[in-house]
Amino acid sequence: MKQQRARVFFLLEDLEVEVPAGTRLPEVVEASGADITFGCKSGTCGTCRVRVVEGIENLSQPTPEERDFLAALSARPNERLGCQFCIQGDVSIDYIGS
Amino acid sequence: MKTVTLSQALRERVLLLDGAMGTQIFAHSPTIDDYGGAEFDGCVELLNERRAQWIQGIHESYFKAGADAVETNTFGCNEVVMAEFGLQHRVFDLNVQAVKIARDVADSFAEKKWVIGSVGPGTKLLTLLHVDYQTLYRSYFEQMRGLIAGGADAILIETAQDLGQIKVAVRAARNAMLAQQMRIPIWVQMTIETTGTMLVGSDVQAALAAIEMLGVDVIGMNCATGPDEMRPHLAYLCEAAPMMVSCLPNAGLPENRNGQTYYPLDPGAFAQRVRGISSDFGLNILGGCCGTTPEHIKALAEIRGQLNVPVRPGRYERSVSSLYNSVSLSLEPRPLYVGERTNANGSKAFREALAKDDFDTMVEIAKEQAKEGAHILDVCVAYVSRDEKRDMSEFLKRLVTQVNIPLMIDSTEVPVIEAALQYAPGKCIVNSINFEDGEEKPRRILDLCREYGAAIVALTIDEQGMAKTCEDKLRIAERLYKLVVEEYGFAPEDLIIDPLTFTLGSGEAEWRNSAVETLNALEILHKRYPRLKSILGLSNVSFGLKPWPRQILNSLMLYHGVQRGLTLAILNASKILPVARISEDHKKLFEALLFNKRDEIAEPLKEILAAFSDPNAKQHMAVSDEHLSVEEKLKNDIIDGRKNQIGAHALEALKIHPPLTIINDILLAGMKVVGERFGAGQMQLPFVLESAESMKAAVRILEPYIEKKEGYKKGRIILATVKGDVHDIGKNLVEIILSNNGFEVMNLGIKQPIESIVETYRTQGADAIGLSGLLVKSTVIMKENLEYMAAHGFTIPVILGGAALTRDFVERECQAVYPGPVFYAEDAFSGLHLMEKICAGGVAELLAQRKTPKDSGEQKQTESGIVVVHRGDKRVGLDANGQSSWVRRDEPIPKPPFWGVRQVNHSLEQVFEYLDEFALLRSRWGYAQGQLSDAEFDKVLQEKAYPTLKRLRERVVSEVLLHPAALYGYFPACSREDNEIVVYNPETSADTPVHQREVIARFSFPRQGNGRQLCIADFLTHESTGKLDVLAVQLVTMGHVASEKAHAAYAENQFSEYFFLHGLSTELTEAYAEKIHAQIRQELAIHTRDAQSKRALFSQGYQGSRYSFGYPACPDMELNEPLLKLLRAERIGVTLSESHQMVPEQTTSAIVIHHPQARYFST
Q1: Of the four, B832, B847, B962, B1153, which is 20 to 30 A from B703 by CA?
Q2: What single-letter DSSP state applies at residue B384?
Q3: By the CB < 8 Å criterion, does A19 face chain B?
């Protein structure tokens, strides 16, 4: 069976990466050297907060922890915690931690 | 020439203002001679007098570019700023001159041109107490007098950074106009930083609420950012503001290019963006700020023809505001909770703190209420024999920056109310007016509300006294409405009627119907005046009763009030019960009292008093499973973690089954359910630990009855934390889960060299070896251990676990060096799953499973299938010093209050303030929601997590388990080549050149290989600049007692207590680090950027960064050695282990960088 693939575009450094659909962002960052930093990886520290410039519908739904964390932060609707989602389709991502 | 007024022009067209003044002045490169002396260097307002022709030329160039109006060169021409040059006495003259210069140029054009008097923010922020109210007021009053006398067509209060300052300036402008008997429009423009708030933290909604109330003619934005960044805020203003909106952006977000400020938008791009905002949302006034030129204005003039004069929808929902946020007065679900404990008459703790002038404690009480869910804070400091006005000012000065909810100023004294309104920056509510002594006093208070922009609470009291009947309440409310809304012109939403609440607790016949009268009045009032708001002092209704019945009666009164339209309620939010939680019997009883219904219950008050003779009685129902079989009971004991009754049930079961059958078939079946629920996200770790405790308790009862001790275990594992690593929480969790699921665990402890691990294996034997570790370095050690084992011919299965590991690293790199199987366990349950398989001969199956994902998919570019398609050339270059050119080099360097290191001690309560409860509960304690519904999870939090936190908090305080101690300080420092920070001896005389200073410590950091190519050193000034920077350092410890107690709990099989205590003390160590860091920012005066919510603060919501060694930007733990030496850490009992980890365990160190671009990053 042919596996679906998706493209992730990192705006900060003009980096484009192709990944199998369902890949988690930390794996993409580790493999490509994108300039995004992770902290607790459990959705409670916010170090990996990113702005999804395009394709937010192509990410897996937020976990309750991510939802509650971002709500408490009054984050904008296009912000996500990088450690909490899978890539399911093409997205453009900007790092907020910077 | 047709005479058009400015207001007419604004109705007919989109008005065009000018661009930057400063940039144009500095293009003349003014010299000391131009200013008229070295002492006046930089005083551009003096140039109105000394170089008037320059200013004329600038105005002329903007008018020629197409501007309808120009701003006078008076941005800093107020007493506070001019006093810095000794020129405060010239303020009036210079403002008059500046207007005249602009007026002459304006009048030289054929078409009508206008002159706008520019009023800048000055150099001192009122809300941060850089200047007192009266000084700032006088300073602006003088400037306004000059601008009006000179003949300005409008006053523009611009680049406003502080709501407090806006309120002073508007009041000064109004009073100056009154004095000169004329009226010109007042415009206000705020500056919103890239952080999304004004400098002192106000968001645009809070600003609109406060400014709208001042009755200004135009609201808008200028400076700090370009049109793109302003766009979302302008979208809100254009939608919400009932007045006209202006937009004067910078020519883009300023960039640093080779040490020069550079504005990226050329005139065409600038104009297109402004046009975009205007055509999308509708602007009334356009212009430019920093970096804009006559060419930019010309470009705006060209696009202006395409824009229509917008119709303002003014959809602003009337609100009140604090310095930071606004709260809608129409917020649903009702009511708005008004916190009642910052009241000297209502709270004993508050009164006692007031008596001691302990304003810090008073602020704490305020913050607690905000935390408990109050929307608005009632503040009352009236207390006999004290100076209420002074107390109010002193308290508010400290309070307003500390709470993010709006204030209700509770006083009947006019001077007190005025003092309060001067120091409260947002839109407050004044509580209250009434007609007890006629109309004179309420009128004076309403004048103040209008002058300072506040809503008003009005009580239904008149010359005849308090209104008791519905009829009287309505009559007085109508009189209040006429005065406040019809005569004073307040919006109906800003009038909040209090129809009065009286106690039902006295039993006196006179008051029995009082709640009914109040509720009826509420209902009719809201029908008659739908926009009007109402308030009740709720707890009055139950005065005289005991605490628990008070809660029930207050909650019911609130419920019925809200049904009838009640908007606000003064109450203690934490003491309100949802009506659904009140039993039907109680509801019936208390409603009989509330509604004075005596048909069924003749004496409701007497019955209540009798039923609640025990003040704390709260009925609760025990869940019964008496009907279940003993097997089912035992299984439930495991699943529900009931360790107190499991022993009895186990003994009961022994009468039927042999002990091994009970363990294997019943208890382990229960544990299996626990594991499944955990895996499915239906059960959180603390509950799993309680199940494990029950398992342990049952097994201990059963073990003496097992005849053949050997052989009932499913298998054996040797567990150890690897060499150089002291972390054992993960390993111990594995032990708990495995040992309570039928495995034998040999837990060797922490810092275990591989030699002793294999020695245990050689002598005792095992089915697998489990290696654990938290540090990044430990992953390397694990691989070395495997190489050692391979070299010595071992092939036993090895399971690796730990935070820094990844599956890929284990299954590829670690597996590659070891001939036996190597598995990755991401948590304790996957360790259990692995052991089940390994001991059932399923190693091959496990290995086969992990191969599958690799083979699927067509691309095989990498193991993971991740391919870099394009790596752009956006790589930021390095500058001449080898540092990232992304980092700005001209950031101001703060002045520390002292050099060297100081020791501080704080109480545990102070540390708890900074506790990140979210991280503690969700991450460290494992209360993750998983697959639970919101309601189910909320139940877990309310019934389990928060009570546990409360209990542990009490335990660590009462048993003094934590001993906070800290060192922090400041050192002169610079960066050097080779990615290094050098720290200089602080005791060197100030005039010693940087390169001759004694270096007392060095820290070297890695640099990113791509992206921004950052290195921590880049954030300090380079030594070659000759400018010293400041490096702050800190060290906090909670002592060693907590760790010892946690381990004692572990040894006694109190698994959950061990886990809770460990998690709490670890998170409190972080909290203390956060607190000291906050203190450092305060002392460096960079705290103005601190986020208001703790959540945001804990997510680096502040200027600069705190870097601890071992994290991605600075992974080298060995740097703790020079750092601890600088701090002389042994003073608070902190030492380093041979692997450079700090002892005690609950200790954390950091270097603190103030540079605004310093954030976390990975190298």
Answers
A1: B832
A2: T
A3: yes
Q: Which residues of chain A neighbour B916 with C-beta distances below 8 Å?
A: 44
Please name the residues between 1140 and 1159 in chain B that touch chain A, using a CB distance below 8 Å. Answer: 1159
**What digits encode the pLDDT tens for the residues B587-624?**
999 999 999 998 888 888 888 888 876 544 443 323 34
| Mean pLDDT, range B1117-1128, rounded to an integer | 94
Residues B504 and B437 in one domain: yes
Average pLDDT for B246-258: 90
User: Given an 8 Å threshold on Cβ–Cβ distance, is B857 in contact with A3?
Assistant: yes
B 846-875 residues inside an 8 A Cβ radius of A: 856-859, 862, 864-875
Distance from CA of B858 to the nearest CA of A (A): 7
CATH number at residue B643: 1.10.1240.10
Residue B292 shares a structural domain with residue B394 = no
Would residue A46 be called left, alpha or beta, if left means φ above 0 and alpha means ψ between -120 and 50 degrees?
left
CA atoms B246, B251, B255, B256: torsion sign? negative
- The domain spanning residue B1097 has which CATH number? 3.10.196.10
Question: Average pLDDT for residues B218-240, to the nearest whole number?
Answer: 93
Query: Beta strand B768-772 with B798-801: parallel, antiparallel or unpaired?
Result: parallel
d(CA B242, CA B1091): 29
Q: What does the pLDDT read at residue B626?
A: 61
B1093: chain A residues, CB-CB within 8 Å: 72-74
Per-residue pLDDT tens over the stretch B805-857: 888 889 989 999 999 999 999 888 899 999 999 998 889 988 888 754 444 43
Name the pLDDT band for B860 (thresholds 50, 70, 90): very low
Note the pLDDT of residue B859: 38
Say whether B1011 and A68 touch across the interface (CB within 8 A).
no
Which DSSP string corresponds to B519-588?
Answer: HHHHHHHHHHSTT-EEEEEGGGGGTTS-HHHHHHHHHHHHHHHHHTT--EEEE-GGG---GGGS-HHHHH
Higher pLDDT, B996 or B54: B54
Same domain, B348 and B492: yes
**DSSP string of B405-439, one letter each residue:** S-EEEE-S-HHHHHHHHHH--S--EEEEE-STT-S
- Cα(B607)–Cα(B514) distance, rounded to whole angstroms? 19
Assess if residue B886 is contained within a domain: no
Question: How confident is the model over B1-11, as a mean pLDDT?
Answer: 79
Residue A17 with chain B: CB contacts under 8 Å: 866-869
Residue B72: enclosing H or E segment and its boundaries? none
- A82 touching chain B per CB within 8 A: no
Tell me the range of B58-72, B353-367, B902-916 where mean pLDDT is highest: B58-72
Note whether B687 and B720 are same-domain residues: no
Kindly state whether residue B1160 falls inside one of the protein's structural domains.
no
Total Cβ atoms within 10 A of residue B4: 16
Q: How far apart are CA B760 and CA B960, in angstroms?
A: 39
| B634 close to B554: Cβ distance less than 8 angstroms | no
B371–chain A Cβ distance below 8 A for any pair? no
Tokens 């073990």 locate to B703
The verdict on residue B620 lying in a domain is no
Q: What is the DSSP letter of B765?
A: -
- Fold of the CATH domain A5-95: Ubiquitin-like (UB roll) (3.10.20)
Q: What is the CATH number of the domain that holds B68?
A: 3.20.20.330
Please give the residue range of the domain that contains residue B987.
Answer: 900-906+964-1039+1066-1153
B381 and B431, same domain (yes or no): yes
Rank A80-84, B307-311, B628-632, B1052-1056 by mean pLDDT and report only the highest.
Answer: A80-84
ipTM of the complex: 0.90
> What local confidence, expressed as pLDDT, does residue B222 receive?
96
Least confident segment among B793-797, B802-806, B1024-1028, B1141-1145: B802-806
Tally of domains in chain B: 5
User: Do the domain assignments include residue B1051?
Assistant: no
